[in-house]
Amino acid sequence: MTTLALVDDDENIVASLKMFFEAEGYNVRTYHDGEAALPALTENPPDIAILDVKMPRMDGMELLRRVRQTSELPVIFLTSKDEEIDEVIGFNIGADDFVRKPCSNRLLAERVKAVLRRARGGTAGPEEGDHKPIIRGKLTLDPNRHACMWDGHPVRLTVTEFLILQALAARPGYVKSRDQLMDAAYDDQIYVDDRTIDSHIKRLRKKFREVTDEFDAIETLYGVGYRYTEA
């Protein structure tokens, strides 16, 4: 059974979504603020979390920042504000998707399924989903285990970061446009803009430079896209 954590200070929303997702077959854990949710999300993580952006004590953004210190848990943000800056900040700290309130329970469920499909490598069975590791110079990507290594050191990547890097590393030297990277990393039900891809590339470079200061394997071609250069 898939475990879903729901973190929102609106008791009516929590009650409604809990009832809905349990009827859909999920094991649902609920929390009413980020401070209460943090230990559970880090010590006994669910399969996916839905976080409200605005909450007392610890808001959703700060909660995700702390979760990302130790975990690449798939996360969807709920936001009632129609402000693009929320999404820019959220994607920069590692959110997988945004859904604006009010929204239908069915729409949110479809977004949850889409993020989980990406996290699990699609809907293929064990044999069909058995992919060989990608080895490109110092980089090793294992799609079966969602594992990434650089020069022998593990690098923790979110689902979206992994899929973007996999798309680039699959054909080193070839340029991938932002649209192509969006197609590789996102379900077709999820709309993102160009700046979202740029934010993920920025996070990828930062993570690899924490291992190797001189990391420059992801090259920007301004006005065109990105390419992976095999070291």
Task: Describe the fold and architecture.
- This protein is α/β, with parallel strands linked by helices and about 230 residues long.
- It has eight helices and eleven strands.
- It has a five-stranded parallel beta sheet with strand order 2-1-3-4-5, sandwiched between helices. A four-stranded antiparallel beta sheet has the order 6-7-8-9, with helices on one face. The protein has a two-stranded antiparallel sheet with strand order 10-11.
- The radius of gyration is 18 Å and the shape is elongated.
- The termini are far apart.
Structural class: alpha/beta
Q: Using the CA coordinates, give the radius of gyration.
A: 18 Å
Instruction: Give helix and strand order, one letter per element, not per position.
Output: EHEHEHEHEHEEEEHHHEE
Average of per-residue pLDDT values:
85
Q: How would you write the strand order of the largest sheet?
A: 2-1-3-4-5
State the helical fraction.
Answer: 25-40%
Count the strands? Answer: 11
Could you tell me how far the N terminus lies from the C terminus, measured between alpha carbons in angstroms? 42 Å
Strand content: 15-25%
Specify the overall morphology. Answer: elongated
Report the sheet with the most strands, covering strand number, pairing sense and barrel closure: 5 strands, parallel
Oligomer: single chain
How many H/I helical runs?
8
Poorly predicted runs of 5 or more residues: 123-129
Produce the secondary structure layout.
Elements: E1 3-7, H1 11-23, E2 27-31, H2 34-43, E3 48-52, H3 60-67, E4 75-79, H4 84-92, E5 97-100, H5 105-119, E6 134-136, E7 139-142, E8 147-150, E9 153-154, H6 159-170, H7 178-185, H8 194-209, E10 218-221, E11 225-228
Parallel strand pairs: 1-2, 1-3, 3-4, 4-5
Antiparallel strand pairs: 6-7, 7-8, 8-9, 10-11
Helix pairs in contact: 2-3, 4-8, 6-7, 6-8
